[in-house]
Amino acid sequence: GENVEQHPSTLSVQEGDSAVIKCTYSDSASNYFPWYKQELGKRPQLIIDIRSNVGEKKDQRIAVTLNKTAKHFSLHITETQPEDSAVYFCAASIWGSARQLTFGSGTQLTVLP
Amino acid sequence: EPEVTQTPSHQVTQMGQEVILRCVPISNHLYFYWYRQILGQKVEFLVSFYNNEISEKSEIFDDQFSVERPDGSNFTLKIRSTKLEDSAMYFCASSGYGASRETQYFGPGTRLLVL
User: Fold this and answer.
1) Cβ of A88 under 8 Å from any chain B Cβ?
2) Which of A81, B5, B22, B93 could form a disulfide with B104 if both were Cys (CB 3.0 to 4.6 A apart)?
C-alpha cells in the first residue's frame, strides 16, 4: 500500500519568514495530494490540495508543488503569521475513486512572534 | 458553511464494553469515512462507506469494528469489545460527488478513552 513520509517533524520560523514542509510518497498510482492543518484538539482542516495533472498550485500565502517523477510534494507558506502555528499533515490518495487518504506523520510548525 | 458533526465529543468506557460513535456527514455527500488518531501520531484510515456498503477497510478495521448508516443522516462506528489500545481520537469524514468526491471534510472528532 501507499506510504507517505513527511519532514521535518518540527519547524520553527520567525514571523514573516517562509516555511517549507516536504513529503514523499511510494505509490505511483497516487494522484491526489491534500494538505491539512490541525490546531490542538481540533479537526484536520483542508488548506490546499493538488492533483497530479498540475505541478504547482497557489492560494494566497500557501502554495503546493508536486514532482511526480521524484514522487514528492511540498507545502510552502510565505509571510508566516503566529496563527499559522499548527500541525500540518500531507496526504496521498487516488483521485476519482473517493479512496482512503494515507497521511504523513505531521509537522509541528511554530511561528515565533 | 456545512460541516461534519460528531457525537459524543468525549467518551470514557471500560475495557470490553461496546461503544457507538455517531457522525452526521455533510448533507449532500455520498462517501463516508472513519479515521483514528492516537495521541501525538498520524491520522490512520479505518474504513470508507458508499452506497450502503464498505468500500475499503484497513487492517485496523477488524471484526470488532462495524459501520452503519441507520437512516438518511447518521453514520455510526461501533466497537464491540473495546481494548485499551482503542483509545484514540476518532474522526468521521465525508466527501461529495463528481469532481470533488476525493475532497474529504473532517468532523471535530470523538475522543475515546478505554480504561
Assistant:
1) no
2) B93
Q: What is the mean pLDDT of chain B?
A: 93
d(CA A103, CA A25): 10
**Interface contact flag, A102 B45, Cβ < 8 Å:** yes
Q: Give the chain A residue nearest B96 (alpha carbons).
A: A98
B66 neighbors B78 (Cβ within 8 angstroms): yes
Task: Reduce the secondary structure of A78-113 to three states and give it as a string.
Answer: CCCCHHHCEEEEEEEECCCCCCCCEECCCEEEEEEC
- The length of chain A is 113
Cβ <8 Å between B56 and A103: no
